[in-house]
Prior knowledge:
Blueprint: E1 3-13, E2 16-27, E3 30-36, E4 47-55, E5 64-66, E6 73-84, E7 93-99, E8 104-110, E9 113-117
Antiparallel strand pairs: 1-2, 1-6, 2-3, 3-4, 4-9, 5-6, 6-7, 7-8, 8-9
Amino acid sequence: MNRWVLLEHKVSLGKLVDIHYDFLVEDERECLTWKFLEIPLANKEFVQIVRQPNHRLVWLSRVDHQLSRNRGQVKRIDHGTFINVSPKLDFQELRLVLDGNLLNGLFEISGNFCKLTKNN
């Protein structure tokens, strides 16, 4: 069905709060997943990302969820469908056209970096 989601992930570490973003892309039986420390902005520089273990499909439909074992809280901040313009879904080199509110346009992943390009 070609769905994707961007989740804000907050983890309380005593008085500190760690915030990062999880980007999930549907791939048949699970989701390819990356961690962003910042949200890529349209037509800006590449943003560093970290490949994460694949996640379950259920995360594509969750809006707000408390994780078990004190792993924090996740909240959906953007989602939609995508068109894959790569030869295949590959976590190392990927080009998707996203239709979200925050992430809208050509989204490219190359190794540990991503970039969002939007036509004006």
